[in-house]
Amino acid sequence: MEIKYQLKPAAERRQEQFRPEGNVGFGRLRTDHMFLMDYYDGEWRDPRIVPYGPFSVAPGAVALHYGQSIFEGAKAFMHQDGEIYTFRINKNAERMNRSADILCIPYLPEEMQLQAINALIDADRLWFPMQDGACLYIRPFIFATEDRLSVSPSTSYTFCVVLSPSGAYYGANLSPISLLISTHYHRAAPGGTGASKASGNYAASLRAGRAAKEVGASQVLYLDNNNVYIEEAGAMNHFHILKDGTVVIPAFTDTILRSITSQSIIELAAELGYPVRQEMVRLDDFIKGIETGDIIEAGGFGTAAVVSPVGSYIFEDGRRLNVGDGKVGEHVKHIYEVYTAIQRGERKAPTGWLQPVPHLGH
Ligand code: PLP
Ligand code: COI
Questions:
Q1: The pTM is what?
Q2: Probe target for ligand 2 pocket from 88, 163, 303, with the most ligand atoms within 8 Å of CB
Q3: b or e along 195-209 (b: 16 or more beta carbons within 10 Å of the residue's beta carbon)?
Q4: CATH 3.30.470.10 domain position(s) in the chain
Q5: Residue-wise pLDDT tens for the chain (362 aa)?
Q6: N6-(pyridoxal phosphate)lysine is carried by which residues (predicted)?
Q7: CA of 200 to the centre of ligand 2 (A)
Q8: What is the rounded CA–CA span in Å between residue 24 and residue 352?
Q9: Ligand 2 centroid to residue 137 C-alpha, Å
Q10: With respect to CATH, is domain 177-343 assigned 3.20.10.10?
Q11: Which numbered atom of ligand 1 lies nearest the CA of 92?
Q12: What is the rounded CA–CA span in Å between residue 231 and residue 236?
């Protein structure tokens, strides 16, 4: 794939490495450029890097009306050698195609996605935020552009990648969140789009998120449609930790997103020193486990937050259940430290997880 470069004039581009004052937060900032590529007449065409800015989109574009749109979320880190490394980005590219299949969006070869992401990071490498715990958050997405009001898959699409220099999600300390156990709102249904990163899944989660905020919870603990099994924690996979240190993650069904963080924790079990397993987790067993002290910690796994400890669960009748003493537990802290040290290149990563962004000289 030959990428065309329409870069901003040098004087309008960042000239030196970004050294933010204060935490830049998550997802707020952008870099100078974005990557674009269009699909029509059965092919992906015109790969290009252009100045970051608004699109021109037809008011009848299928994505705007019927939500035919998917995205990914990944991170890149700067290591001691001054190079920027993407983290397991091939897994995101693979999952993009899984989502594409679920949303009837055409396949986008993984090598093309990786080339696009690498080229954009390379062009905007001066935007890497030089700050403890900071990263470049990578947001690739595909949306349907055909101007047509009938409901069927679009015949044209745009693939775009934007970057967001982001700070440590938590600042210096992990802080426990609380989850509303929702039997009323559900995130996904069997046979639906729950295992994809369809934009509509997130639109559909907003009302449940609002209900959570209204009772003072940070996010929702989603259950399956029969309110028997635990599924996800907001935009994270859920997990809990048993007295003996075993980490338990709900089995991936078609109503749960296959979190790359969860998959990584499973692959890192030996390195972490904990058994990690996946199984269907019944809510009633989980609550009993917390009450008896058999479950000592819980939380969520996801790219943005890495590991988010849950301090308490809130029931719809207002009851509150603390996990342990409601504070951040030592296992969660250990997982967070090992995982982020691997990402930052301070601890050996499994082969292939971290890939340096090539210098292309633009
Ligand atoms: N579950 C949902 C619904 C998500 O949106 C995310 C975020 O990407 C995750 C889980 C965590 O997945 P990952 O670890 O791949 O970021
Ligand atoms: C991520 O963790 O990268 C996500 O995509 C979650 C999000 C919707 C911010």
A1: 0.97
A2: 303
A3: bbbbbbbeebbeebb
A4: 4-171
A5: 999 999 999 999 999 999 999 889 999 999 999 999 999 999 999 999 999 999 999 999 999 999 999 999 999 999 999 999 999 999 999 999 999 999 999 999 999 999 999 999 999 999 999 999 999 999 999 999 999 999 999 999 999 999 999 987 766 578 999 999 999 999 999 999 999 999 999 999 999 999 999 999 999 999 999 999 999 999 999 999 999 999 999 999 999 999 999 999 999 999 999 999 999 999 999 999 999 999 999 999 999 989 999 999 999 999 999 999 999 999 999 999 999 999 999 999 999 999 999 999 88
A6: 197
A7: 14
A8: 29
A9: 10
A10: yes
A11: 15
A12: 10
